[in-house]
Design brief:
The chain is α/β, with parallel strands linked by helices. The protein folds into two domains: 117 residues, Rossmann fold (3-Layer(aba) Sandwich), CATH 3.40.50; 161 residues, Rossmann fold (3-Layer(aba) Sandwich), CATH 3.40.50. The protein contains twelve helices and twelve strands. It has a seven-stranded parallel beta sheet, with helices on both faces. Strands 2-1-3-4-5 form a five-stranded parallel beta sheet. The radius of gyration is 22 Å and the shape is elongated. The structure holds (2R)-2,3-dihydroxypropanoic acid (DGY). The site of (2R)-2,3-dihydroxypropanoic acid has 7 residues, from loops.
């Protein structure tokens, strides 16, 4: 019997997934540079039964049309699915798989790392210590580290009010979106002596005793009372550009804003305004618009804005688990007798 034909849109996939797929499918892997160019995607998806894709691939009507009627299963190696035209897939009876749960811990850890780096100004301090005035771009940071080894620290002086950060102890932390990641962040913050946790979510959550107490509040109250606002909500039509000028204007001037969800939740011009005018104190972003952010984007020039290149799930075991789950989803949808472990629709 002929094996199902699948397309993987990127070559750097943990081997476990490729091995599993090769056993039962005829696998076409895009070997070129990242991300797969649109014309290549449209050409190579034609006639495929399954598609293994990533957040960098916009899978819309055009791609589905190019694939044709053979396409039965789409598996994204991500928990987010705002890059997929889900309604269109449903209407064509295409099964869709995604990779929740296996990446929650890694994303929560990264959120904390970003929060710590932002509120204690670690990158800014690193830049100061190494003689760079302000540098967040990876290449500049490498240069900065090189300078540190060459004694760059000698050019700045320790001082009692120099490079002051903002502590979590005694603060109010507000989490926007208390789903899997939000809950994992909440749990990890339990040891930081936070005075009060607030959250805004689609529904009130009944959390077990292993979580610190958190109060379900309106978005307005979350913004007004939080010293740290952490955004971990999914991007959808209800949350798109939720953090707009009004939202930033409602925050404390001392507030620190962290986003590890999707750039689309933030009106980025409003965020730039809020930071430049001192409306809020700092921001830590793992996600932004567009991605990759152009190196000369204004966000890269703001000293109190810590930027990471979408690294929430970039942890060895996590990426292997995501790849394996995505492969299992694809096989589950394609091979008779198998099930999709995590099916969206
Ligand atoms: C996801 O899974 O949606 C992350 O943003 C990327 O791994």
């Amino acid at each position: 019997m002929e094996k199902p034909k699948v397309l993987i849109t990127k070559k750097d996939v943990p081997q476990i997934a490729i091995r599993k797929l090769r056993e039962l499918c005829d696998v076409d892997i895009y070997e070129g540079s990242y991300p797969m160019p649109r014309d290549q995607l449209l050409a190579r998806v034609a006639g495929k039964d399954g598609l293994f894709c990533f957040i960098t691939d916009r899978i819309n009507t055009k791609v589905l049309d190019a694939a044709g009627r053979s396409l039965r299963v789409i598996s994204t190696m991500s928990v987010g699915y705002d890059h997929l035209s889900l309604e269109e897939m449903k209407s064509r009876d295409i099964k869709v798989g995604y990779t929740p749960d296996v990446l929650t811990d890694a994303t929560a850890e990264l959120t904390l790392a970003l929060l710590l780096a932002t509120w204690r100004r670690l990158l800014q301090a690193n830049a100061a210590a190494t003689g760079q005035r302000c540098c967040y771009r990876p290449t500049l940071l490498l240069q900065a580290n090189a300078e540190l080894n060459n004694g760059g620290w000698g050019r700045c002086v320790w001082g009692p009010v120099w490079m002051l950060g903002k502590g979590l102890s005694g603060s109010t932390v507000g989490i926007f979106g208390l789903g899997r990641t939000g809950q994992a962040v909440l749990k990890r913050l339990a040891g930081f002596n936070v005075a009060k946790f607030l959250y805004t979510s689609t529904t009130k959550k009944e959390l077990g005793g292993s979580y610190p107490v958190a109060e379900f509040v309106s978005f307005e109250r979350l913004l007004q009372e939080s010293d740290f606002v952490i955004c971990t909500a999914a991007l959808n039509e209800q949350t798109r550009a939720k953090f707009n000028k009004d939202a930033f204007a409602a925050m404390k001037n001392s507030a620190v804003f962290i986003n590890t969800s999707r750039g689309g939740l933030v009106d980025q011009e409003a965020l730039v305004w809020a930071i430049q005018t001192g409306q809020i104190r700092a921001a830590g972003l793992d996600v932004m618009t567009p991605e990759p952010l152009p190196a000369d984007h204004i966000l890269t020039t703001l000293p109190n804005c810590t930027l990471l290149p979408h690294l929430g799930t970039s942890e060895e075991r996590t990426r292997a688990a995501m790849a394996e789950l995505a492969a299992d989803n694809l096989l589950g949808g394609l091979i008779v007798g198998k099930q999709m472990p995590k099916r969206l629709c």
